[in-house]
Amino acid sequence: MHEKLYEIKSISYQIRVIEESDLRSLLLVKNDVSVHKKRFQQQKNGEAVYLGAFINNYAIGYVLLSLDNKEDVMPYTNQEKCADMIDLLIIEPLRNYGVGSKLVLACEELCRENDIFYLGLDVNPTDNFAAKRLYESLGYYTVGEIHLDGVYEYIDEAGRQGQYEDWCIDMIKRMCC
Question: Are 151 and 164 in contact (CB under 8 A)?
Fold first, then answer.
């Protein structure tokens, strides 16, 4: 049999607040129970909103909207409150279909509903250039200098352990007026 190519015409997905009952599905996007449980606790405490994109209740992406003030950008916001968008992630096969954009727009809507005038984020402009381009297309702009956002342990395909330095820039967008 020869290979055949088929096209999926239209796929609908839902963006909603993630619930603890979604944990199993979230592990298909990022297999780290501790990260998700920490975010559920932040949401329960009113510190954040955990948003997900779902097809038939299967997670295909998520983002955490931290409602705590993003202090490092305050000089660029006239001291007005700035929420922080953290860890926007879409499963690889569904990237570049607008799911990430819709999650960003949902975060912006929540900011407006909560009278938060700015939304900020960190992005690595070298290793995640596609994400930086996405944010720029949605009206975000760079503020401040590049900074070390974190150092993360990893194990490569050959089983060797290493460290990754995540050098990021801050980007912000004013939500209204």
Answer: yes
Report d(CA 133, CA 111) in Å as an integer. 22
List, for residues 122-136, the tens digit of each pLDDT value. 999 999 999 999 999
Query: Alpha-carbon distance 37 to 13, whole Å?
Result: 24
177: pLDDT confidence band, cut at 50, 70 and 90?
low
Question: What are the structural domains of the chain?
Answer: 14-174 (3.40.630.30)
**3-state class (DSSP) for residue 147:** strand
Q: What is the pTM of this model?
A: 0.90
In the structure encoding, which two tokens stand for residue 32, read together? Answer: 């780290």
Instruction: Give dist(CA 124, CA 37) in Å, integer.
Output: 25
